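Supplementary Methods, section 5.1.

A reviewer requested that the exact input to the structure prediction be made available. We therefore reproduce it here, unchanged from the version used in the analyses.
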Amino acid sequence: MYIMMVSSECAPVAKVGGLADVVNGLSRELEIRGNDVELILPKYDCMRYDHIWGMQPTFNDLWVPWYGGAIHCTVYFGFVHGRKCYFIEPHSNDNFFNRGTFYGCQDDISRYAFFSKAALEFMLQSGKHPDIIHCHDWQTGLVPVMLFEQYKWQGMTHPRVCYTIHNFKHQGITGEFILNATQLGRPDYYWHYDRLRDNFNNTAINMMKGGIVYSNFVTTVSPKHCWEAKYTDQGFGLQHTLQIHESKFGGVLNGIDFDIWNPEVDRYIPSHYGPDSIENKYPNKTALRQRLMLRDEYKPIISFIGRLDVQKGLDLVKHALFYSLDHGAQFILLGSSPDASINNYYWHLKHHLNDHTECHLEIGFNEELAHLIYAGSDMVIVPSLFEPCGLTQMIGMKYGTVPLVRAVGGLADTVFDKDYSDRALHDRNGFLFNEPDWAGVESVLQRAIALWYTYPDHFKNLAENGMRYDYSWNYPGQHYLNIYNLIRE
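The structure derived from this sequence is encoded token-by-token as follows.
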């Protein structure tokens, strides 16, 4: 099967969050299963070019219709850790992708609407007719719209579209100008409630809604979050649209790349180990303390690794930090935020705790350090307000680091409580809490810390249980192939 991924991110060259890891990991799994997979990405000036092999121009004269004219583009080709990638570089005064950043520009709507148009135009002009176009999040929500309304009339009748929504919070809500820019036109037609009109703003276009309406199948990144998006406020206003289209909407749990996140082969940690040699985990704990200048004593280390985003329950993270320090645990935080006010707050907190030998705050993101924190920590906390899938808890389990999570989205699909799960004891792998408040965080920390001190063998068994779960791309890869085959029939 010939599959074309269209995405604004792909790890490790253009990575902001989990989307990048998913695009790379899923593409690799599909290739392993014998499919021909290619990716189309913007050519950002801030990409990690050191991870692209053999990059060179492959299509020099791509003219992309835009407003009343066209923008000239060059398309480059290169390999990203074995993935075949095309990078679109527009030559215009708009300077869409030479901003030194991936997101956060006032014209992000125009930037990614253009990218979606350019991706389809490149497929058309280069004669590419994939069986499946798999596009992701609001940035590519117009791809299935333009394919159905424009490009199928120019000969692109073969591709079917799978549209994956990683985060319902950001939907690409915009005005009529985007119809003019992409030459879709006909505002009265697209403003219909059953097409692109936003469900709560009758003067706005919703790009994500367009992706839902026009694609052949829609997925989100865990079965529980699929239900949450349809029936709770985690659909962020798209609940009714998802209910209308529920026959083509499903949840597929993300996976993690075991070539990258695997303590048996991880090149960033000093001591390798697996579920049958978990005692070799503990030299990593010593190395982590030495690196971060934490006191070396008989205490558990609890970590938080991720974006400093309101979604992640930042007030709960802060409370977990101080509760841990007050109850016999050390705490490590690794993360940063695109929001300057959040970053500044955590820098202030870091300076406040600067001389504390029981905690360390690393404001920023360091891939090498992240691996060592996973390997050296005893527990990882994920107190998210909402979490479509979450990779942190799955990586933590692979490293024998027990997850403490809120029972939402993919967290609830992957973590089964040590005390309250209805699963067999050997299938329980962490701790959960329900309410997003201090009492909930304290309850899960109290149980986990008490188990670590009082019944260390039981805690070790819990960690080993988590390590034996297969949260690789093996099962999700097959689920996506089943979806592709369904929509091709």
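The chain is about 35% helix and 20% strand. These observations are discussed further in the main text.
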